[in-house]
Amino acid sequence: MSGVEKFEKYLKYSEGIEISDSEVKTRRAVVKIxxxxxxxxxxxxxxxxxxxxxxxLEVELVSVSGSxxxxxxxxxxTVKIAGAANITEDLEAEVLRVAGLINVKRRIxxxxxxxxxxxxxDEGVFETFRVNGLFRASTVQASKIELEVVGESEVNSIKTxxxxxxxxxxxxxxxxxLHVELGPVxxxxxxxxxxxxxxxxxxALKATxxxxxxxxxxxxxxxxxxxxxxxxxxxxxxxxxxxxxEVGEIVKIDDAD
Length: 257
What we know:
Blueprint: H1 3-13, E1 17-25, E2 29-40, E3 44-55, E4 57-71, E5 74-87, E6 91-149, E7 152-167, E8 169-180, E9 183-194, E10 196-209, E11 212-224, E12 229-241, E13 246-252
Parallel strand pairs: 3-4, 4-5, 5-6, 6-7, 7-10, 10-11, 11-12, 12-13
Antiparallel strand pairs: 1-2, 2-3, 8-9
């Protein structure tokens, strides 16, 4: 039996505290729940509905289906959000999974982060950072970054070993009327809007970019694909740029580190 299975079995048979439209005070935080949930101090916060935490929350698992507001910081092994989370200070976790929106006012430090939706934060430190949607941040540092951008993502600086950015079009619809001989006919017109990542500076060992606007790119190996606008490129080993990309100044250097 794996460690995860043992933990889940323990939670199943432990007493815990069942919460419904109530609150629990711990030594370092006050947990308020609207809806239903389960709380085991230092181990589990599981909510279906909405939850508010005042103070510092340290547990092994946070699982919220609905909304979570934290006036303070969270430290956990695993954080799962299906809905929206708003954290006024820091978030530290081994695993982060978000389907919806997460907004961290200060710092995220996570080993494995996967966002389907939107992520807003100031400083991010990751081992792997995957986003299918959009994110906005001041700085991102990671070993590996994979982005499928929908909408407009913005970041001041990125530093990573490996980064791949893919653009994903999103169709927006407008309704109009077409007049024909038999009378007016409603017409729905779909127009594709491409996702884009805007960055001031990207540093990487290998960068594969699509739909990226960047003032400065510095990489050992750079692959610049369609819909990119790069002001200045520093590379040390190889550079490939698509005819559908706009690249300004190119500088070959000894080492991109």
